[in-house]
Write a structure and sequence with these properties.
Blueprint (H helix, E strand, L loop, with lengths): L4 E6 L3 H12 L1 H8 L20 E5 L15 H13 L7 E5 L7 H7 L2 H8 L2 E4 L6 E6 L2 E6 H5 L2 E5 L3 E3 L3 E3 L11 H9 L3 H10 L4 E6 L17 E5 L2 H12 L7 H8 L11 E4 L12 E2 L15 H5 L3 E3 L4 H16 L3 H8 L4 E3 L10 E3 L8 E3 L6 H13 L1
Parallel strand pairs: 1-12, 2-3, 2-7, 3-4, 7-10, 14-15, 15-16, 16-17
Antiparallel strand pairs: 1-11, 5-6, 8-9, 10-11, 12-13
Bound molecules: iron/sulfur cluster.
The site of iron/sulfur cluster has 14 residues, from α12.
Length: about 400
């Protein structure tokens, strides 16, 4: 496949669809090229890939919620990748699945609930919890010093397996932002203090993803952690993470120019965000009418399954003022507010706040206010404690605040 191409396949046999996609994309050819070998395709001598050549597979296991909820990577896709690589002569010792969940959840629980412990055991491959990594490098990423887990940088080939979904702060998340899983928790918090967009773009200058397999099966179009899956039953393959994310914008009803980490990554030379150059090709299955059709996308906005008018976020975010909030905190508050809205209590809450907003985020440390969420707002008259607090705790505390 070429850098301006995205291959996709529709269906429900996710493992087999992934294998078919990788065959068409000639993933083994890309690996051989990276290993400095000549000869591609099924006839090539794949065993000549050096035994110490290490391939990392990076899913998105942001929270301990199974993939059907729309926030995490389907293990069947990673299984398809493992099967393909083992069938093409790679040894299980050369393959490693690595991830670090978001601040507030433990990767080990995500490995468990999302089916990755059993998957790794079945295939005999290593599973690495990057939240526990002690070896951290300070890396100059296009002029910005960032902390990155050493293991991620020691890989010879990195296969990124993000979920195409919405994000309550950056609007979308897919290939570029999924790399945040390879930095320590302390650095994730610092990313939020730096406004997210700039460090996400620079991080991708310090760690190169070689191949992308995109889980577009049922990603949540609003929330990174899932909860409202939108079924599309699609898996895609791509090489350019910037173009992948630009296409994610198109799917979710945004323009790439509305997501500054994408345009900044393009300016840093990490790929193209010009959708006029993207060539879409479908291998099998029926393209849902909400999805863009095959071919080169023109400047005209294609069909989108998620129009901005229907986004739940827009309806409720007006009650909140966030400053440098971690995704785990902000992403937990919004569903709690959505529940209040469904019970017809959100307007009551806004009236009770009397012009103030709910404060959330690291920027509120040492500051005062009426109602705050998270330990960072400990100085507020009413603070819903936790780092981050759980959705249920926020919901209950907001109801108590209303009743007081
Ligand atoms: S309380 Fe503060 S540091 Fe903790 S998750 Fe929330 S915003 Fe981040």
């Amino acid at each position: 496949m070429t850098a301006n191409e995205i291959l996709r396949i529709y269906g429900t046999e996710y493992r087999d669809m992934t294998v078919r996609l990788l065959q068409e994309a000639d993933l083994i050819g890309e690996i051989r090229k990276k290993a400095g070998l000549t000869g591609r395709g099924p006839g090539a001598d794949n065993n000549s890939i050096p035994e110490d050549f290490l391939i990392g597979i990076k899913p998105n296991l942001v929270t301990p919620n199974p993939a059907m909820f729309g926030g995490t990577t389907h293990p069947e896709i990673v299984e398809g990748i493992l099967s393909y690589l083992l069938e093409h002569g790679l040894k299980k010792e050369q393959l490693i699945i690595l991830e670090g969940s978001w601040v507030g959840d433990r990767t080990e629980e995500a490995f468990d609930y999302c089916g990755y412990f059993s998957l790794a055991e079945r295939y005999g491959v290593a599973l690495k919890d990057l939240q526990k990594e002690k070896r951290i490098d300070t890396v100059s990423c296009a002029g910005m010093d960032l902390q990155i887990c050493s293991l991620a940088r020691e890989l010879d080939f990195l296969i990124n397996v993000p979920v195409l979904k919405g994000h309550c702060q950056t609007k979308v998340t897919c290939a570029l932002k999924n790399m945040k899983g390879v930095i320590p928790n302390s650095e994730k918090r610092r990313f939020h203090r730096m406004g997210l967009h700039k460090p996400i773009a620079h991080l991708n200058a310090g760690i190169r993803q070689d191949f992308i397999v995109i889980d577009h099966i049922c990603g949540d179009p609003d929330f990174e952690e899932g909860g409202n899956p939108l079924v599309r039953n699609c898996i895609m393959a791509a090489e350019d993470p910037v173009l992948t994310d630009a296409y994610t914008c198109r799917i979710l009803g945004y323009e790439p120019s509305e997501v500054s980490y994408i345009t900044l990554a393009a300016r840093l030379g990490l790929g193209s965000c010009d959708l006029d150059t993207l060539s879409l090709r479908t291998l099998e299955g029926t393209i849902p009418e909400e999805e863009p059709q095959d071919g080169v996308l023109s400047g005209e906005k294609e069909a989108s399954g998620q129009s901005p008018e229907t986004r739940k976020l827009v309806d409720i975010a007006y009650a909140v003022e966030e400053i440098d909030s971690c995704s785990a905190c902000y992403g937990t508050l919004l569903p709690a507010l959505e529940r209040l809205r469904k019970e017809g209590l959100l307007d009551l809450l806004v009236r009770k706040l009397d012009g103030a907003k709910i404060g959330i985020g690291q920027g509120y440390r040492g500051r005062t206010g009426l109602l705050g969420v998270g330990n960072c707002t400990a100085g507020f008259r009413n603070c819903i404690r936790g780092c981050p607090p759980k959705e249920e705790e926020i919901f209950d505390a907001l109801k108590r605040f209303l009743e007081a």
